[in-house]
Design brief:
- It is a single chain.
- The protein is 27% helix and 27% strand.
- The chain is an alpha/beta fold.
Length: 395
């Protein structure tokens, strides 16, 4: 008999299945700064913050519809590594960010202190447990403990299903696999994901929407066809005062055509958010809790092979805005933050995943693409064209 801590939502179950296909399915928030690392202080801070936020300690228990996330009581580990040769601008040279998580035996989150110039801290969590904002909150809690402040704590049991406005009266049709990729067709069979980070400065109006249109233009360089991009939306604002490390995001998908403008895209997104039009469940959603994980894994592998073979995907990719944060909240224990950024969550059936993050007058744009779709040159050139195509605000 298992003590219930959190239901396994539809999205969480899919991320667990995807874990076997393309590990690690991880949120990775990186904080850059200067100062020093006191490992004893960090060990104590991670324990204090995780005790107050047991969502960081959950493990998968049970099977099928009886699956639950249960508090293991195990504090997420702290690692310290030397990476003086890593420039922090991409996946090359960073194998320590490829370490996997294990849903049933753990850990499902960790902190990595990265020695180099600048100093970096990586807060890593499995996406089945946390989203980017949840990982940021856990990081902020650790820094509170480092500064000698009491962690705020968070709600462990709530899932995105509790916050979604989904009509249960009818089932919708699953997304068709006919959307083209911003990278073009498959170029090889190398497994895994590669990513690249660029930094820009200044203020860019409607930056997220600009990036979406530029990503669509990238897709049309390789051929004609519909483009559909997902925007992960943080649902925490729907419940006043909610604090959670959980995965409380829901993707809104917007279709882009050659006639789409910034204004029309802005209006479409604004109305969807305002009216909380989260849609309906599909028949696929309804059966996920009743399908063994190995069957879901096989289905995801089959979908990936089919999409790569045909060049048509369930969607073209994701574009996520992590937002701007004050670096004061990411400092403590002798470490002083200067910038933060996040590696996109990506898997081989997702042809394009881009994250925006910022502090001060800087914005980091990080693009992740399956290695089967992009070598280092394609990745860098795609990201460079998107960055150079952005329109900066006039002074």
């Amino acid at each position: 008999m298992f003590v219930k801590a959190r239901d396994v939502s539809i999205a969480s179950r899919l991320w667990v299945a995807a874990h076997e296909l393309c590990p690690p399915i991880a949120n990775q928030v990186i904080v850059e700064g200067h100062g020093r690392f006191d490992s004893e202080k960090w060990i104590r801070a991670v324990k204090l913050a995780s005790d107050a936020n047991p969502g960081s300690r959950l493990l998968l228990r049970g099977h099928l519809g009886m699956s639950r996330w249960v508090d293991s009581g195990q504090t997420p580990p702290l690692r310290m590594i030397d990476a003086g040769d890593w420039d922090g601008c991409g996946s090359e040279g960073a194998p320590f960010l490829e370490k996997s998580f294990f849903p049933r035996r753990g850990p499902m989150a960790e902190v990595v202190l990265i020695q180099g110039d600048p100093l970096r801290v990586a807060f890593r969590s499995h996406h089945a447990l946390m989203d980017g904002r949840g990982t940021v909150f856990w990081a902020e809690e650790i820094f509170r403990a480092l500064r000698g402040e009491k962690p705020l704590g968070s709600d462990t049991a709530i899932t995105e299903n509790d916050l979604l406005n989904i009509s249960k009266q009818k089932l919708s049709t699953p997304l068709q696999h006919h959307y083209i990729a911003p990278t073009g067709r498959v170029i090889g069979n190398e497994p895994g994901i590669r990513w690249k980070r660029n930094r820009i400065r200044g203020r860019y109006p409607r930056l997220l929407l600009q990036v979406m249109l530029l990503a669509a233009r990238e897709a049309w360089k390789h051929g004609s066809g519909p483009v559909r991009l997902g925007i992960p939306v943080d649902l925490r604002a729907r419940r006043k005062g909610l604090r959670s490390t959980g995965n409380l995001t829901n993707a809104l998908f917007l279709e882009i055509t050659p006639d789409t403008t910034l204004e029309s895209l802005d209006a479409d997104l604004a109305s969807r958010l305002r009216e909380q039009r989260d849609g309906q469940l599909t028949w696929e959603d309804k059966i996920i809790s009743h399908v063994p994980l190995f069957v879901l894994d096989m289905a995801l592998r089959s979908e990936t092979r089919r999409s790569h073979r045909t060049g048509s995907y369930r969607f073209s990719g994701f574009v996520s805005n992590m937002g701007r944060f004050s670096m004061e909240g990411f400092s403590g224990g002798g470490f002083h933050a200067e910038m933060y950024w996040a590696v996109p969550v990506c898997m081989e059936s997702v042809p394009f995943s881009l994250v925006l993050s910022g502090a001060g007058d800087s914005v980091d744009i990080i693009l992740a693409i399956p290695r089967a779709l992009a070598d280092q040159r394609i990745l860098e050139e795609t990201l460079s064209r998107i960055c150079s195509g952005l329109v900066i605000a006039q002074r």
